[in-house]
Design a protein that fits this description.
Strand content: 15-25%
Number of helices: 20
CATH topology of the largest domain: BirA Bifunctional Protein, domain 2
Structural class: alpha+beta
Helix content: 25-40%
CATH class of the largest domain: Alpha Beta
Shape: extended
CATH superfamily of the largest domain: Bira Bifunctional Protein, Domain 2
Number of strands: 20
Number of domains: 2
Length: 501
């Protein structure tokens, strides 16, 4: 029997008793994996080998999981601190227990969200009660992580799903094809197989020299696996951003731009956010270790400081909380793109603006959030505002209804909300086309006098910040924001995402 060289190599490397994965067969045959795969399918077609296919799942620990293997899960640390503080006998202040646990930043939220779920105790009214009968040493999640770290299998799928949701493991499925010699293959080897010189393609050189007349060409197997070539495609978020811009420009808006790293003054102070607000701690903002910004409008700086200290108008009271000019000049990554609105409304960006005006931006913002299905450390915010006389809540709602209608989204719901910088304020919710759940898609309101007066604006301004990723989730059907962008992005989903609405 005469066979192409690579088929002979694959056939001779195959076993009649032990199925070999194709990568192992390729290594033993001394040919590359792609050539081995093609040869195996050709040999299978001739009945000389059999191919077994199975799906194999690998589970690997994340860096966060390895950190917990060294220092315990956050909820376990919280429980031990609670017991140490006597919370197994009488409730103890949550702040006291968190301080004693040594937990910081996102780990505090992780501990609090898992504490009651695992039956370690209860959290009520700012106090923690610990269950004296709880046994953190037998925590199923840490036990599973230890087993995986030791290379052992964990068969509980629901437990693995929970660890994956927490970002503690990564699960990957792959198809494994193994090769086994058939009786016909064994007979062929015993009878002797001769390697024939073959070519897998016709080249210009063969045509010029006439060699093509004497060359034996390999058969073309249309069923064989081929190397996948992904064509370039505009990212679904870029498509969404461009569509948003088109819609807003069509509604009469102009686009804003500005720095990603800015003074805390523009990011928060001008928005009447108190400097001791929890969102302005190192837990939530990304402060930069750079020189403070010196170039701030002095008159505006004093006006904003006065609004914080004393309030605005006869009924204003301010915060009477600490206010530091040094803090206002510090630089951080913007936690929202409303810093751009402050620059434009104050006249610092393009000079004084006379009403009516409509501006928007679709830019990145950065927050030190706990990563989950609807939160990332960086995201795109659809910022917008309208400056005009006698604006009402109905104007605000009508603007949203018209905007989302352009994307085929008609089920938009509003819920009253509190913001330090708008009154009244509303959160927006849209219904997910796949799960049917309402998900938060934005925040909005009418700027307070304490925001507008220092900026020198004496008419109404309604404003909003909408989440581009969540809009994309609504019209593509994505259920996890991490599928859209970031290190865990689902490339297959992005290649094939279609608009549902």
């Amino acid at each position: 029997m005469r066979l192409p060289e690579r088929q002979v190599a694959a056939l001779e490397a195959a076993s009649a008793t032990d199925a070999q994965p194709i990568p192992d067969l390729a290594a033993e045959a001394g040919i590359d994996e792609a050539a081995a795969t093609t040869s195996v399918f050709e040999l299978e077609e001739d009945g000389l080998v059999a191919v077994e296919t199975e799906t194999e799942e690998t589970v690997s620990l994340t860096d966060e999981a390895r950190e917990y293997l060294d220092a315990e899960l956050p909820e376990v640390r919280l429980y031990r601190a609670a017991v140490e503080a006597g919370a197994d006998e009488t409730p103890v202040s949550m702040g006291q227990v968190i301080g004693a646990s040594g937990l910081e930043g996102p780990q505090v939220d992780i501990a609090l969200s898992n504490f009651a779920r695992k039956g370690y105790g209860e959290i009520d009214g700012g106090e923690i009660s610990a269950d004296p009968d709880a046994d953190p040493d037998s925590d199923a999640e840490i036990t599973a992580l230890e087993a995986l770290d030791a290379g052992e299998a964990v068969d509980d799928d629901s437990l693995l799903d929970r660890l994956a949701e927490r970002g503690l493991i990564e699960r990957e499925k792959r198809t494994v094809r193994s090769v086994l010699l058939t009786d016909a293959g064994v007979d062929a080897l015993m009878a002797g197989v001769e390697a024939a010189e073959t070519a897998d393609r016709l080249t210009p050189e063969m045509l010029i020299s006439g060699e093509w007349e004497d060359v034996e060409f390999t058969d073309y197997n249309v069923e064989a696996d081929a190397t996948e070539a992904g064509a370039g495609k505009v990212h679904v978020l870029r498509q969404a951003a461009e569509r948003v811009k088109d819609v807003l420009v069509g509604m009469g808006f102009q686009e804003m731009d500005g720095p990603h790293a800015d003074a805390d003054f523009w990011i928060n102070d001008a928005l009447f956010m108190p400097q001791d607000h929890p969102a302005r701690t190192h837990w939530d903002r990304f402060a930069l270790d750079v020189d403070p910004i010196e170039d701030l409008p002095e008159d505006l700086l004093r006006a904003v400081e006065n609004a914080h200290r004393e309030g605005v108008g006869p009924d204003g009271d301010g915060y009477h909380s600490p206010w530091s000019e040094d803090f206002a000049r510090e630089v951080a990554l913007r936690g929202h793109t409303t810093s751009l609105s402050m620059r434009y409304l104050s006249g610092a960006a393009e000079g004084d603006l006379e009403p009516p005006q409509r501006y928007f931006s679709v830019e990145k913002a950065y927050r030190n959030d706990t990563i989950d299905a609807t939160h990332l450390l960086e995201f795109f915010q659809i910022e917008g505002w309208v400056m005009a006389e006698d604006l009402s809540v109905r104007d605000l709602m009508g603007t949203f209804e018209e905007f989302y209608r352009q994307f085929g989204i008609t089920d938009v719901q509003f819920k009253p909300h509190y913001n330090p910088y708008t009154e009244p304020s509303f959160e927006l919710f849209g219904r997910h086309p796949e799960t049917g759940e309402l998900i938060e898609i934005g925040n909005s309101g009418i700027f307070r006098e304490e925001v507008l007066s220092p900026l020198g604006v004496d008419c109404d301004v309604m404003a909003w910040g909408l989440a581009l990723e969540r809009l994309a989730m609504l019209y593509t059907g994505a259920e996890d924001i991490r599928d859209l962008h970031g290190t865990l992005a689902d490339l297959e989903f992005l290649r094939n995402a279609e608009v549902i609405y």
